[in-house]
Amino acid sequence: MGDDYTSPQDNAILTILRTSEEVNNLKDVDTILDKILFESRRLSNADAGSIFLVEKNSLIFSYVQNDTLFKGESANAALYQNFAIPISEQSIVGYVAKTRQALTIDDAYELDATLPFSFNKSFDEKSGYRTTSMLTIPLIAQESRLVGVMQLINAKNDMGKSVPFSDEAKTYIPLFCNNASVAIERGIMNRELILRMMQMAELRDPTETGAHVQRVGAFCAEIYGTWASRRKYSAKDIKRGRDNLRLAAMLHDVGKVGISDTILKKPGKLNDEEFATIKMHTLWGARLFKNQTSELDRMSMEIALCHHEKFGGGGYPGVAPADVWKSDEQGTTPLSGEDIPLPARICAVADVYDALASPRSYKDPFPDEKCLGILEKDAGTHFDPEIVEIFHEIFDVIKAIRDKYKETPKE
Ligand SMILES: [Fe+2]
Ligand SMILES: [Fe+2]
After folding, report:
1. Please, which of 40, 314, 315, 363 could form a disulfide with 309 given CB 3.0 to 4.6 Å?
2. pTM over 0.85
3. Which domains are delineated in the chain?
4. Nearest-ligand number for the alpha carbon of 198
5. Residue of 158, 137, 135 lying closest to 146 (CA atoms)
6. Ligand 1 centre and the CA of 308: distance in Å?
7. Which ligand is nearest to the CA of 303?
8. What pLDDT does 5 receive?
9. Confidence at residue 75, expressed as pLDDT on a 0 to 100 scale
10. Is the pLDDT of residue 323 over 70?
11. What pLDDT is attached to residue 24?
């Protein structure tokens, strides 16, 4: 009674419980993967790690962290690599997916020749990294569905030297991963639900494709990450902001479900009345988030409402976020500068850039130089100049996102 002694084992379990709860509060699949990998690495003192998610019969490379090669919260093109590994015994992750058993390797370069899998050295050769110890764990959700595989690399001792993974790591991390897998599945479902909502808007406006909204969501998350790092926000706050912004930005044009095909698909120029109707997609979209129960709802409302406002003034609809439910009157409160909520200022740059860099029925995609030139020219009038500056700064990441979410041809 009253004994407040906690053993190291109890501590590990408490950490797992607390972290599982934090994971359960996240919504977007990328933020969930980031958190799970970060905490698993912390529990095992691993230098690096990646997560692969199952898609059909392959493992899709989905997330990476590496303390030696990449720095903390800064924007990182490596996150958007696109490659798949078959679920087969030839690779380490494939083997773990197939057998559904965790696998510990003390030195990837000293594998027994009788094992069915081999270590793929290409990443080490390209990056100059030296992989030694590995702990590879299947991610299994409810009803024994395999969601993916997590691979932790190079456990470190107190001196920073690579050592084999400890027995504690081998015991506790699979335990944590069982909880985490359920969160990953939920994150995937959230993303898919939003993509389905956007497919409805896409039926109206064919330029709002799934790939477009995924790109805009990812651009916004990366811009926000850099914006918030500049202001020295905590890693936790940055993750939460990115998590919400990514999903909210995907919904920027959801209000287009309310506009008729005759207007949205009209060839040629719109008359004044038709254009006034198009502009209503901002207010109609914002009103979908009437019952604001979360930060995500608030951000989704601000973005839907204000993504066509201009930094120097003169955008639309000119309705303050507080007046969304008042009337259909546009232009009652002209917005400019920082009256426009930050998420909307970020989304304006991301959305316009993506339209410039994508093909349209009347134009080919513009080359990078031309797109950046237009953003630059309109910084201060249409766009928040700091957001344009950040966009430039992280342009290699922007390009990696574009490569990852390419348009898939319609069946
Ligand atoms: Fe829009
Ligand atoms: Fe858009």
Report:
1. 315
2. yes
3. 8-184 (3.30.450.40), 205-404 (1.10.3210.10)
4. 2
5. 137
6. 6
7. 1
8. 66
9. 74
10. yes
11. 86
